[in-house]
Design brief:
This protein has about 600 residues and is of the alpha+beta class. Helix content is about 40%, strand content about 15%. The strands form four sheets. It has a six-stranded antiparallel β-sheet, with helices on one face. Strands 4-5-6-7-11-12 form a six-stranded antiparallel β-sheet, covered by helices on one side. Helix 6 packs antiparallel against helix 21 and helix 13 crosses helix 17.
């Protein structure tokens, strides 16, 4: 994992570039380098995961003549296979990692073929100085961030919103996106936007091209193209048992791809379905995956010292060994200060409450020198795993109605019809593409299941789940990997029949994953995991806050706030503004809140 700040401007001095680079330092605390040419200036940091002892593996990578440069953040999991193609071209390698393979693949085959071939999580910039051409790309599902600003034919890119803001001094807030964020049920905004008016996000599955002041953004990944009608019909005629076996093989294949590392590994273990399934394969199939016995450290968050909260799954996994080595105590007083810390790092308000305990887990792994962590994220998006999705599929007669977690709240005091029109234009465009692809299905619920598999994988992942995972992990200099967020997993799941995804009669989601674990007697389906949002709800009680003292009260009417989720987003936004714009960190609380939260 790494971070970079890159600009084509000749006006910035070296000190300014390096100062902006301090906001990406935790993304790569084990190596940094400043590079300047007649065409660009840059600063790159590195977190060593692969080929850690080889200095030649440091970033950025460039050729001897300094005609080509690669700035790169991520992991290319199939790099060893790609390396074989390059060896046929008589290319000699100086490293054993993925960065050099990506560099030569881009140089040899170009951007389009490279993006079709590589499998991983990534954000990179590739510069061809001979043609004065820049390419920048982001992975298919948005696991790694890439932000940019374009002003007066100057292009600036970075892994961090804060780095761009610090360098360019673009401080103007996008009030429309603020209102969308506050009125969204999940804190979402259009995926090509940020809270800052002049700083944009490159969407997942897109790359940009910049040459001779010409700027273009190209979409290279469309999840609907991974659906094959014949494959779907064949799967529909298979038994669930056969589908289980095939899905199991695909999961094992993805885990094996995600297992390349020169560092120790761990896993976030919530006790939920997805992390339990992942842990099961890592534990039971250890030798097959790693080709040798490998120790995987698990870590669980406990709230209020009540072990009784933990479901049967976690109790089985950690058995009698539950102690400080594989659990951390998370209490109310921890929440608020770490919420501030992660907002300081990310340069964006938090979208949901569960990122803070995950931030603390990542911090604990860092203390144990475990730098690669597996996560079960992604399965919910690809398998209709949120309960509001099931409810939406059952109740909707209109194909253009969306689940609660994708919608704006019309009852929100921040809701605006014009904002909603902008927001839903994006969603409706995705739905239109999906309906066109899946309209051959006769059952409306089957159509909706396929639509929502695509939309949550294409929109929700990059706007919420994946990007927040990047934030809480990279703030602690650890790398989180998501074996369920992968092209080969998605292709398997998008071609499954509805019976393997959801049982609408008994409100069951992720059917295929549940069946796999159930067959191995590995989970008690009647038990709920403790969850990670209880303290976000706690701090969002209206009685704790003096909203009249909030800076945003000058622009937004906070007097009618009542919904705790809305209050949580307002608190996040206020922290964001005080940290990044006002530099006044103190937030006025009532006496009760002052004692409890700070």
């Amino acid at each position: 994992m790494c971070g970079f700040i890159f600009t084509t401007s000749k006006n910035y001095k070296k000190k300014q570039i390096i100062k902006s680079g301090k906001f990406i330092f935790s993304r790569g605390p084990e190596g940094n380098k400043y590079i300047q040419t007649n065409y660009f200036k840059s600063y790159h940091t590195r977190l060593k995961i692969m080929d850690i002892k080889n200095k030649k593996a440091n970033l950025p990578i460039y050729d001897l003549k300094k005609n080509y440069f690669l700035f790169y953040n991520g992991e290319i999991y199939n790099f060893e296979t790609l390396k074989l193609e390059l060896l046929k071209k008589k290319i000699k390698f100086k490293t054993n990692g993925d960065s050099e393979v990506l560099f030569y693949f881009l140089k040899t085959f170009g951007i389009q073929k490279t993006l079709k071939k590589i499998n991983g999580m990534f954000a990179f910039i590739f510069v061809d100085l001979r043609k004065k051409k820049i390419f920048a790309a982001r992975d298919e599902f948005g696991q790694k961030p890439l932000y940019y600003s374009k002003n007066n034919n100057i292009l600036t890119l970075s892994s961090s919103v804060r780095s761009i803001k610090n360098l360019t001094n673009f401080n103007d807030l996008d009030k429309q996106n603020i209102r969308i964020f506050l009125s969204s049920n999940s804190g979402l905004i259009p995926p090509n936007k940020t809270i800052f008016k002049d700083i944009m996000a490159l969407e997942a599955g897109h790359y940009l091209s910049f040459s001779k002041n010409k700027f273009k953004i190209i979409k290279y990944f469309n999840p609907r193209e991974y659906f094959y009608k014949n494959k779907y019909y064949i799967n529909n005629n298979k038994s669930l048992r056969i589908i289980e076996k095939e899905t199991t093989n695909t999961i094992l294949q993805s885990i094996e791809l995600h297992s390349i590392s020169s560092r120790k590994r761990g896993i976030f273990l919530s006790g939920g379905l997805d992390s339990s399934l992942l842990y099961f394969f890592l534990k039971e199939k250890n030798y097959k995956i790693f080709k040798k016995k490998t120790y995987i450290k698990s870590l669980t968050v406990l709230h209020d010292k009540q072990l009784s909260y933990l479901p049967t799954t976690v109790n089985k996994i950690i058995n009698k060994q539950l102690d400080k080595s594989n659990s951390i105590q998370f209490e109310k007083r921890d929440y608020f200060k770490n919420l501030i810390n992660i907002i300081k790092f990310s340069g964006l308000p938090q979208r949901w409450g569960g990122g803070i305990p995950m931030y603390m887990c990542a911090k604990e792994f860092r203390k144990k020198n475990i730098r690669v962590i597996y996560s079960g994220d992604g399965a919910d998006e690809m398998l209709c795993g949120y309960m509001d999705i099931i409810k939406s599929i059952k109740n909707n007669k209109n194909l253009y109605v969306f689940p609660y977690s994708l919608e704006l709240n019309k009852n929100s005091i921040f809701y605006n019809d014009l904002d909603a029109k902008i927001y839903y234009r994006y969603l409706n465009n995705l739905r239109k593409q999906s309906i066109k692809k899946f309209k051959f299905l006769k059952n409306k619920s089957d159509i909706l299941i396929k639509c929502l598999q695509c939309e949550y994988s294409e929109f929700f992942l990059q706007s919420c789940t994946a990007i927040q995972s990047d934030e809480y992990s990279m703030a602690n200099s650890v790398e989180v990997r998501h074996p369920f967020i992968n092209k080969i997993i998605f292709e398997n799941l998008i071609n499954l029949p509805s019976k393997a995804i959801a049982n609408l009669k008994d409100n069951t989601n992720k059917v295929i994953f549940r069946n796999i674990l159930k067959r191995h007697n590995y989970i008690n389906h009647d038990k709920k995991k403790e969850g990670t949002r209880n303290y976000s709800k706690f701090i969002s009680q209206k009685k704790y806050w003096n909203f009249e003292s909030f800076y945003i009260s000058k622009y937004l009417d906070l007097s009618k706030l009542s919904n705790w989720k809305e209050i949580y987003k307002v608190i996040n936004l206020e922290i964001f503004i005080r940290v990044h714009l006002s530099k006044n960190f103190y937030i006025m609380l009532t006496p009760i809140g002052k004692k409890t939260l700070l």
